[in-house]
């Protein structure tokens, strides 16, 4: 038996070509938060012009038919029995009154959201121009906005006692931000953490199809509405949906409803958990994406832009929300 070296003639063998080798398949792809991706697609999808015409005409025709049927019913009932006809007339009048009140509430909700937008726009302009007079106008608007809020009484008193000592726009708006909005920021972040925890839990535990999408949609709607209420918006039903569309449209336009740099820690945790359960990994990433939507909602609803205080970190919010949820989160 020969113990010498074995020689291989390379001219008679096919040379190795690493660039042509097939890619190594991943055993399990990293979770991407499918539920939140679908929620963003649902919330930001605009119907076609033909679809809008269809629904507008369908609603107009339905309202016309219902109104005509109610009129015929009431007039016929009055002819047969004036008492019963009068009762029906009063009930319909009360229904119309309630609908009018609901419409006024929705209009008031839109007006409150517009006030927040106006104050935020004035604050940005004052910061950009370093205009002390404009900054004082923003502070006055904040005081009017929160004058009936007991939870801002200490902040308003602190701001009133110290604002005379500040002689520059940056310092004055920074004082208003820390004294007046600090407690509100903490409450808004707790709402974000609660929504992220709920979405992550349902995604990880409930195996029903579309349950995670429904939970993510309702949790994000509720979260954005409560964040608006924290900052004084108190959005109505239509206002909440419009605000949600605005937040998610902004995130989709900037590519933020996806896994990015500020979700590296969450994605890493989701990848580790996905080795045990795919749904656990998806739960972590869906919760992280919910936190990102919450941060965007805070930026939209907050009457002052983040200047003296730092913008909430998505990673920190997710860490607090999911600690202990999946064996240490």
Could you characterize the architecture of this molecule?
By secondary structure, this protein is mostly helical. Helices cover 71% and strands 0% of the residues. It has helices at residues 34-44, 49-80, 82-129, 132-145, 153-162, 169-180, 182-205, 211-230, 237-253, 264-276, 278-301, 314-322. 33% of the residues are buried.
Keywords for this structure?
329 residues, mainly alpha, 12 helices, 71% helix, 0% strand, globular
How are the SSEs placed, and which strands pair?
Elements: H1 34-44, H2 49-80, H3 82-129, H4 132-145, H5 153-162, H6 169-180, H7 182-205, H8 211-230, H9 237-253, H10 264-276, H11 278-301, H12 314-322
Helix pairs in contact: 1-8, 2-3, 3-4, 4-6, 5-6, 7-8, 7-11, 7-12, 8-9, 8-11, 9-11, 10-11, 11-12
Please outline what is shown here.
By secondary structure, the protein is an all-alpha fold. The chain has twelve helices and no strands. Helix 4 packs parallel to helix 6 and helix 7 runs antiparallel to helix 8.
What is Rg? 29 Å
Counting H and I runs of at least 4 residues, what is the number of helices? 12
The SSE string, one letter per element, is HHHHHHHHHHHH
Distance between the termini: 61 Å
Helix content: over 70%
Integer average pLDDT = 76
**Gross morphology:** globular
What fraction of the residues are assigned to beta strands by DSSP? Answer: under 5%
Low-pLDDT segments, ≥5 res: 23-28, 259-276
Largest sheet: none
Count all strands and give the number: 0
């Amino acid at each position: 038996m020969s113990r010498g070296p074995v020689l291989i003639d390379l001219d008679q063998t096919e040379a190795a070509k690493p660039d042509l080798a097939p890619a190594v398949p991943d055993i399990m792809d990293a979770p991407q938060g499918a539920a939140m991706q679908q929620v963003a697609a649902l919330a930001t999808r605009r119907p076609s012009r033909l679809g809008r015409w269809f629904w507008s005409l369908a609603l107009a025709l339905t309202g016309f038919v219902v109104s005509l049927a109610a009129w015929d019913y009431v007039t016929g009932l009055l002819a047969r029995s004036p008492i019963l006809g009068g009762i029906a007339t009063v009930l319909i009048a009360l229904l119309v009154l309630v609908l009018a009140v609901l419409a006024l509430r929705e209009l008031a909700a839109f007006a409150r959201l517009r006030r927040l937008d106006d104050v935020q726009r004035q604050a940005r302009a004052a910061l950009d121009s370093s205009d002390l007079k404009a900054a004082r106008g923003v502070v006055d608007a904040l005081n009017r906005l929160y004058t009936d809020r007991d939870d801002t009484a200490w902040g308003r008193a602190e701001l009133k006692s110290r604002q005379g000592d500040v002689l520059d726009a940056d310092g004055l708006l920074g004082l208003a931000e820390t004294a007046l909005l600090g407690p509100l920021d903490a409450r808004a972040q707790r709402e974000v953490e609660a929504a992220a925890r709920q979405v992550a839990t349902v995604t990880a535990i409930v195996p029903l199809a579309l349950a995670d999408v429904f939970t993510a949609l309702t949790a994000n709607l509720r979260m954005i509405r409560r964040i608006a209420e924290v900052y004084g918006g108190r959005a109505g039903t239509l206002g909440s949906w419009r605000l949600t569309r605005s937040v998610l449209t902004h995130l989709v336009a900037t590519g933020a409803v996806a896994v990015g740099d500020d979700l590296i820690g969450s994605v890493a945790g989701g990848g580790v958990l996905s080795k045990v359960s795919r749904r656990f990994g998806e739960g972590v990433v869906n919760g992280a994406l919910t936190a990102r939507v919450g941060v965007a909602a805070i930026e939209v609803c907050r009457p002052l832009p983040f200047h003296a205080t730092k913008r909430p970190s998505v990673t920190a919010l997710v860490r607090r929300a999911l600690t202990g949820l999946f064996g240490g989160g």
